[in-house]
Design a protein that fits this description.
about 500 residues, alpha/beta, TIM Barrel, 2 domains, eight-stranded parallel β-barrel, 20 strands, binds beta-L-fucopyranose, secreted, glycosidase, signal, EC 3.2.1.51, apoplast
Length: about 500
C-alpha cells in the first residue's frame, strides 16, 4: 500500500466514525430535568387525575331529617325500601366520576355493614330483614362499572359506650377498620375527620396506629385527614381552595381536628416538605344528608365550585346524598348531568389548537423532546414544554392565531407535577394586555377572564417566578358559554 492509499484509508475510517457519532447524536434525546422535591406518590397522582370524586352521606340521619345523629336512633328506622346502589353508581358514571366514597359510619355510630363488633347496624334494621349490607352493595355496583371505592369511618361515635375510653375505643375503631379494609376488596381512599364529642375532649384518636394499619391492608389507598398523610382537607366545606394553592405542606406540626390550621391548609406552603394535596368537600345540597326540604345547587354555583377547586390545583369531593327510598333524587341526577355536560362543552374544545406556538426557549433545542407542541397533546403529566434554563425568570409561551381571531374566556394551564410543583407567579396577556396576575398553577389552574369574552390574535403566558425551571404540561384556551362575569368590560380592551 502506498502512503496516499494509507491516507485515504484513514480519512475513510474517520469519516465513517464521524457519521456514526453524528447519527447517534441525532437519535439521542435530551434528558428530563431533575425533579424538585417533594414529589407525589403513584396513588396521589392517580387521585389528582380523578378531578371529581363523589361522596354519599347515607344512614339513620336520612330518616330523621338531621345532620348529626344523637347515637340514640333505633336501627329500626333505617328502612330504604327501594335501595339501589346501581342507580348511585350509574349517576356517578354519568357524571364522569371514577371514585365514590360512602359513609360506612357517621357520628351517630350506625354501621351500614354488619359489623361483628356492634349491634348498632343494618343487622338491627327491617331492611332486608337485617340481612342487608349497604357497603357490599355499594362496592358491587361501583366495581361493575369500573368505578373505585372509598370509605368514611367517623372517629367520633355518639353511640358506642367505649367512646371516651382511649384504649377500648381505639381497639373498637381499629377492629372496624380491619373489617372494612379486609372484607370489601380494594379501597382507594379512606376518610378520617378529626371531630370529637364535646363531652369527650380527652378522647385521643390513635391516628398513627390507624394510618399504619390502613397502609398495611391497602397498598394503593390514599388516607384523607385535615393533614394527610396522603390527601389534606382544604380548610372549609364550601368547595373553595385558596387562590394560591400548593400541594405541599409541612405536616408534622399540624394537629388533626384543630380549626386553627384551616388557613394554612387552604393555601398550602411553598416551602412544605410533604406532598399532601387538598381535597375540597362540599355537598350538592345545603346539608350532607338528604332532606326533603332541600334542593340541589344551581349549575352556575356548581361551576363556580369546579373552577375554585379543580381549577385551583385540587380535587373536588362532591356529596350527593341518597334519599329515604335509597335512591339519588331525580333533581340531583339531572343537576349532575348538567354539570358534566357543561364541563364537556367548555373543555372538549381547545382553541389553542388553531394557533402557532412560540416560546422563550426550549431545553435541548427544537428536537430535544421538550418543545411547546407538548402542551397541546393529551398527556397532561409526562410530556411538557421545558424552557431553556438560561432564560431564568423570563419564561414565556405564546399562542398566535393562524388566521382571524379566537373568542374565549377561560385559560387553562397545567404543570408537569410528576417532577414537583414549581410555579410561584404567572401572568396572562391577551394581545399584549395583562389580564391575569396570579400565583400557583399546580396540576390544573383555570382562569375565567374577569374581562368576560375576549376576541384576540394572541395569548402569552409568562412564568414570573418559579422554584427552578417551570414545566408546563398543557395549555388550553376555552369558551365557557355558562359564565357571565359581574361587570363586562370587554369594550375597555384595547386591541
Ligand atoms: C364533617 C362532619 O361533621 C359532617 O357531618 C360531614 O360528614 C363532613 C363531610 O365532615 O366532619
Amino acid at each position: 500500500m502506498t502512503i496516499s492509499h494509507n491516507l485515504l484509508y484513514i480519512v475513510t475510517i474517520f469519516f465513517t466514525l464521524f457519521q456514526l457519532v453524528f447519527s447517534l447524536n441525532e437519535q439521542m434525546k435530551t434528558t428530563p430535568p431533575l425533579p424538585i422535591l417533594p414529589l407525589p406518590s403513584y396513588s396521589q397522582l392517580k387521585w389528582q387525575q380523578r378531578e371529581i370524586i363523589m361522596f354519599f352521606h347515607f344512614g339513620v340521619n336520612t330518616f330523621t331529617d338531621s345532620e348529626w345523629g344523637t347515637g340514640h336512633e333505633s336501627p329500626s328506622i333505617f328502612n330504604p325500601t327501594g335501595l339501589n346502589a346501581n342507580q348511585w353508581a350509574d349517576t356517578a358514571a354519568q357524571a364522569g366520576v371514577s371514585l365514590m366514597i360512602l359513609t360506612a359510619k357517621h357520628h351517630d355510630g350506625f354501621c351500614l355493614w354488619p359489623s361483628k363488633y356492634t349491634n348498632h347496624s343494618v343487622i338491627g334494621s327491617p331492611w332486608k330483614n337485617g340481612h342487608g349490607d349497604v357497603v357490599q352493595e355499594f362496592v358491587n355496583a361501583a366495581k361493575a362499572r369500573g368505578i373505585d371505592v372509598g370509605l368514611y369511618l367517623s372517629p367520633w361515635d355518639r353511640h358506642d359506650s367505649r367512646y371516651g375510653q382511649n384504649k377500648e375505643y381505639n381497639e373498637y375503631y381499629l377492629a372496624q377498620l380491619q373489617e372494612l379494609l379486609n372484607r370489601y376488596g380494594g379501597v382507594r381512599e379512606i376518610w378520617f375527620d378529626g371531630a370529637k364529642g364535646s363531652n369527650a375532649t380527652n378522647m385521643t384518636y390513635y391516628f398513627n396506629d390507624w394510618f399504619s394499619m390502613v397502609k398495611e391492608l391497602q397498598s394503593t389507598i390514599n388516607i384523607f385527614s385535615d393533614a394527610g398523610p396522603d390527601v389534606r382537607w382544604v380548610g372549609n366545606e364550601n368547595g373553595y381552595a385558596g387562590d394560591t394553592c400548593w400541594s405541599t405542606i409541612n405536616a408534622t406540626s399540624l394537629s388533626i381536628g384543630n380549626a386553627s390550621i384551616a388557613n394554612y391548609i387552604n393555601t398550602g406552603d411553598s416551602r412544605g416538605t410533604n406532598w399532601i394535596p387538598a381535597e375540597c368537600d362540599v355537598s350538592i345540597r345545603k346539608g350532607w344528608f338528604w332532606h326533603k326540604s332541600q334542593k340541589p345547587k344551581k349549575l352556575s354555583e356548581l361551576l363556580d365550585i369546579y373552577y375554585k377547586s379543580v381549577g385551583r390545583n385540587c380535587v373536588l369531593l362532591l356529596n350527593v346524598p341518597p334519599n329515604t327510598t335509597g335512591l339519588i333524587s331525580e333533581s340531583d341526577v339531572q343537576t349532575l348531568k348538567q354539570l358534566r355536560g357543561a364541563i364537556n362543552t367548555i373543555f372538549s374544545f381547545n382553541l389553542a389548537e388553531n394557533c402557532h406556538v412560540e416560546v422563550s426557549g426550549t431545553r435541548g433545542g427544537k428536537n430535544g423532546g421538550f418543545g411547546p407542541e407538548n402542551v397541546l397533546d393529551d398527556d397532561h403529566l409526562w410530556t411538557y414544554w421545558a424552557p431553556n434554563e438560561e432564560d431564568k425568570e423570563n419564561y414565556w409561551i405564546e399562542f398566535k392565531v393562524k388566521s382571524g381571531k379566537i373568542k374565549f374566556n377561560v385559560v387553562r394551564i397545567q404543570e408537569a407535577i410528576g417532577l414537583g410543583q414549581r410555579v410561584k407567579e404567572h401572568e396572562v396577556y391577551v394581545d399584549g394586555i395583562k389580564v391575569v396576575k396570579e400565583t400557583t398553577i399546580g396540576y390544573k389552574r383555570l382562569h375565567r377572564l374577569k374581562l368576560g369574552i375576549v376576541e384576540a390574535h394572541g395569548v402569552r403566558i409568562k412564568i414570573v417566578k418559579a422554584k427552578g425551571t417551570p414545566l408546563i404540561s398543557s395549555v388550553g384556551l376555552h369558551f365557557d358559554p355558562f359564565w357571565k362575569p359581574k361587570v363586562d368590560v370587554t369594550s375597555k380592551m384595547v386591541h
